[in-house]
Fold this protein.
Amino acid sequence: MRAQFVLSEIGVGLRRNLTMTFAVIVSVALSLALFGGSLLMSDQVSTMKGYWYDKVNVSIFLCNKHDAENDVHCAKGAVTEDQKKQILVDLKKMPVVENVTHESQDEAYKHYKEQFGNSPLAGSLTPDQMQESYRIKLEDPQKYQVIATAFNGRDGVQSVQDQKGILDNLFQLLNLMNRGALGVMAMMLIVALLLIVNTVRVSAFSRRRETGIMRLVGASGFYIQAPFIAEAAVAGLIGGGLACVGLVVGRYFTIDHGMDLSHKLTLINFVGWDAVLTKLPLILATSVLMPALAAFFALRKYLKV
C-alpha cells in the first residue's frame, strides 16, 4: 500500500511540474552526455598516445657537403665514415635504444619524392642534397633527452630531432578541447542541479497541505520525503537514459557508419564499443544519485519534517 502511494505521488508530481521536469531531463541528458563524451575523449587520447608514442623515432641527421657550407653545426665538414661508424657503435651501447635504422641519402630522396613529389622544390633537389640519418627506436619514448645530450654538437651531426614533440602539440590540443568539454559539462551540471532543487521546492510547496496532514497523522520523515526524492531520481534516470542513447548513437554514426571515420581516418586507432559500454552504467548511476541527493538536501530546507 505504501509503495503504491509513493508511486502514485511520483506520477502526480511529474505531471504537475511537467515543464520543469522536462527542463530537468534535458539538462541532465546534456550534462551527462558531455560527461560521457569527455571520459571517452580521455580514453581516445590515451589510446592514441599508446599507439603513436610506440611508433615515434628519434632521428640523428648527419652533415652532408651542402650543410658544411651553410650550417654552423657542420662547420667541420661532412660526416666521415669513421664518424658514422662511431655514432652507430655508441648508439648500440646505450640501454635506452631498442633498435637503430640507417637511412641513406638515396633513401631519404626517395621518401621525400613519395611524400612531397608535387612540391615545386622537389624538382630542384638531388640525392646528394639530402641528409643521411639514423632512426632510433627507444625503449621509452620519454628518454629522448638522453640521445639529444649524447649526440647534439658531435662532429658530423647536424641535428637530433624527436618526433614525439610534434605529437605532444597534437595531444595538448586534444586535452585542451577535452577540458573545454568538461567545463561546459560542469556548467550544465550546475544548471541541472538548480533546476532539480527548484522543481522539488515547487513540488513541496504545491503539496504542503498533504504533507502537513501526513505529519499530523504520524508519517515518518522518510515516508514524506520519498515521493519527492523519487520524482527527481526518475527525471534524472530518463535524462541519463537519453545521454546513454546519445553516446551510443553518436559512436555508431560518427565512427562506424554515417561519417565512417574508422575507414576515412585509418591512422587513428579509435576507442572500441567496450569503452562506450563501460561508461553507460556510470552515467545511469550518476543520473539517479545526483538528482536524488540534490532533492534530499533541498527538502531539508524547504520541507520541514
Notes: DSSP finds eleven helices and four strands in the chain. The chain has two domains: 3-53+168-303, 57-140. Residues 164-206 form the longest helix (43 residues). The first strand starts at residue 58 and ends at 62.
